[in-house]
UniProtKB/TrEMBL annotation:
Any single Pfam family the record assigns to this protein: Glutaminase
Assembly and binders: Homotetramer.
Similarity field: Belongs to the glutaminase family.
Organism of provenance: Timema podura
Catalytic activity: L-glutamine + H2O = L-glutamate + NH4(+)
Lineage, highest ranks first: Eukaryota, Metazoa, Ecdysozoa, Arthropoda, Hexapoda
PANTHER family the UniProt entry points to: GLUTAMINASE
InterPro entries from the UniProt entry: Beta-lactam/transpept-like (IPR012338), Glutaminase (IPR015868)
Keyword annotations: Hydrolase
Protein name according to UniProt: glutaminase
């Protein structure tokens, strides 16, 4: 479900948003948005990851062909270009510093806490955080929502992006993964009372300043 949704988002971006752009221009457009959300912090492209994603993509291609069979894609979509755009988007390389600013932007209603630029509108942030809360932690999302109750997104690189709306953004990075593909220590950090709760209490005291936290 998560991958199918991401492929569909790429198809919508490719076809409906600035449709006259070439595929490289569209990817630069995406990177620019991410860099604005990160306040100018490092956002790069990893070609080795891109090649690996494309060479081991049987399941993603199957999802793409299934959605194409049911005519889910916007009219005029080119499936191979859409899949390449998806693989490129999966190969964006970030740092903990850039991730925590992105988390802060999501926590701040779409306004980057570093540059004060309104990158995304509040309605978009509401939708993004709702999706993060409901499916951001793969098959563990339901339990995470019950135990932690915060929007979060994990990645197979071991990173986790956690949003405390109106308070702060958090990035954790610890590569060992559990059986569901989430960072073991990242999940533990969020679940234990001594981990996340004191940070939330600390930041509530200073409500006028959004704080970003990095945990490695």
């Amino acid at each position: 479900m998560v991958n199918a949704g991401a492929i569909m988002v790429c198809a919508l971006l490719q076809t409906l948003v600035k449709p006259k752009m070439t595929l490289p221009e569209k990817f630069d457009f995406l990177l620019n948005y991410l860099r604005r959300m990160a306040g100018g912090e490092s956002i790069e492209f990893n070609n080795d990851v891109f090649m690996s994603e494309r060479d081991h993509a049987d399941r993603n291609y199957a999802l793409g062909f299934l959605m194409s069979e049911y005519k889910c894609f916007p009219e005029g979509s080119a499936l191979q270009e859409c899949m390449d755009f998806y693989f490129q988007s999966c190969s964006v390389e970030v740092t903990c510093d850039s991730m925590v600013v992105i988390a802060g932007t999501l926590a701040n209603g779409g306004v980057c806490p570093i540059t004060d630029e309104a990158v995304l509108c509040p309605g978009t942030i509401r939708n993004v955080l709702s999706l993060m809360h409901s499916c951001g932690m793969y098959d563990f999302s339901g339990q995470f929502a019950f135990k932690v109750g915060l929007p979060a997104k994990s990645g197979v690189c071991g990173a986790m992006l956690i949003v405390v709306p109106g308070v702060m953004g958090i990035c954790t990075w610890s590569p060992p993964l559990d059986s569901l593909g989430n960072s073991v220590r990242g999940v533990q950090f969020c679940e234990v009372r001594e981990g996340l709760a004191p940070l939330i209490c600390m930041c509530i005291v200073e409500t006028t300043r959004l704080v970003g936290c990095i945990w490695r």
